[in-house]
Amino acid sequence: MNNLSRTAAVVTVFTTCEHFLGFLYRIFLSRSLGSEGLGVYQTALTVFAVFLTICSSGLPITLSRAISKHKTRNNVKGEQSATTAAVVITLAFSLPITLLLFFFRTPFTRVFSDPRCADLFYIFLFGLSATSVYSILRGCFWGNKRFFAYSVVELIEEIIMILVGVSLLLFLQNDLPDLNKAAIAVLVSYLCSFSIALFYFLLKGGKFRSPKGELRPLLTTSLPVTAMRTSSSLMNSLISVLFPMRLMAAGVSSSIAMSEYGVVYGMVMPVLTIPSTLIGSIALVLVPELSERFYKGERESLRGYAEKAINATLLIAGILIPFFLVEGESIGILLYSNAQSGTLISRCALVLLPMSITMMCTSVLNSMNCERQTLLFFLLGAGGMLLCVWILPQYLGSGALCVGMAVDYLLCAVCSLFLLRKKTGKLRSLGYFLRLAVGIAIVSLLGFAVMRVCTRYLGLFPAFLLTSLFIGGAELLFFALLRLYSPTTVFNRFFVKKGKKVPSHC
């Protein structure tokens, strides 16, 4: 477990850097493009994600699991054949889709209510095949536990997109719209990450061989995951069209409706998905380990890993919830100069719990051949989300999306936890969750009191900073008292040299 912890820590460092840089870039885009432009950009990217998902999304985790299976049998040729089969499958989807979409461009562009979305989509489309193959190579790195390479290439892709995007938007003075410049930056990052990953794959002795015997198993196993993620992408695309339409039906103008969508998905969601950085790092490292233990039939070990993963996920979400609850409005103003986004961040803070649990449980269950069940859970949650988006905009405005997300993730989280318990045995995480809920309530109430005093006598930023320091200190104290983490363990791991640990009773 120590090796896993160290690996997860390394991956987390890289992933945190990547997400932090991406977060800063999103702030830059929000100020450069405005909320309406950000809505157009997000809509085009969301529709492109549907086709990217169709071409490759289920294959990386399926390939990773296939490689883990072949490793338990020392079958190197099987690993190479599986990798080749995944590349063949993704190209068999991505190349025809690219050609058809360019050939039928005129009818397809009618999908978009704003013609600017179509221009951006077709810029992204040039990179569909390249980034699909790159996804396969990431799956190969994942299955071989080359997490460092996986993380470095992801970080380089983010850095390239940011450098190109900032350079084009700030320094290229021509008639090209700023939205198109931002899309070109994404395309360049896709092409560069593909090239770097392929070079590293070949440098490390990666080979392509006949995919015979691997095509059908990979395809059939990956279909449920692909179906779930494609459905997710389709739902996001549907929401990007349906939500503005329902707002306009309630009497809102087209421009304001697109702006509302941009606020939620361009400003609020990047903040709410901050926990995904750490959760994704844990899942990335755990999935190959879980797959190997699943194929070996080590049920007790599976339960232990799953329980620790869930508790870690709860703790990550629990640390951030008080910050968002108390200081959401300040976050929106400081980051985006947009008070509405801050209000929504505060109101959606509790969604972090079911959202984080859903992310982790889905990864764990997929590593144990439960793709069909997770697909059904997703569809159940998606149905609740669509009902909220259809009914609630006339009453709640952009808050309808927040309610929809809460319903979606809550349904998925509950169903996933029941299935995980069935697969691994009794999970002892309920007590941990109850203690965490008490800790969140105490820290949040104290945080609101401190924030109220600080804002009465100080400016926005000093009040935000002092309240943040107080919340952090309160979490260290109360979370330790509630046994949500062990200060001694943390101290030993990070501050005490090997062989000189402080006794656990101290």
In words, what does this structure look like?
With 506 residues, this protein is an all-alpha fold. It is built from 20 helices and no strands. Helix 5 (115-125) runs parallel beside helix 8 (178-203). The longest helix has 55 residues, at 2-56. It is globular and about 70 Å long.
Outline the secondary-structure elements.
Elements: H1 2-56, H2 59-72, H3 76-103, H4 105-108, H5 115-125, H6 128-143, H7 147-171, H8 178-203, H9 215-249, H10 254-272, H11 275-296, H12 299-336, H13 339-347, H14 352-366, H15 371-391, H16 393-396, H17 399-424, H18 430-457, H19 460-481, H20 487-495
The count of strands amounts to: 0
Q: What is the domain total for the residues?
A: 2
How much is the average pLDDT?
82
User: What oligomeric state best describes the polypeptide chains here?
Assistant: single chain
What is the molecular shape?
Answer: globular
Percent helix among the residues? over 70%
Largest sheet: none
Pairing-aware structural class of the strands and helices? Answer: mainly alpha
Main features:
globular, 2 domains, mainly alpha, 506 residues
In short:
The chain has 506 residues and is an all-alpha fold.
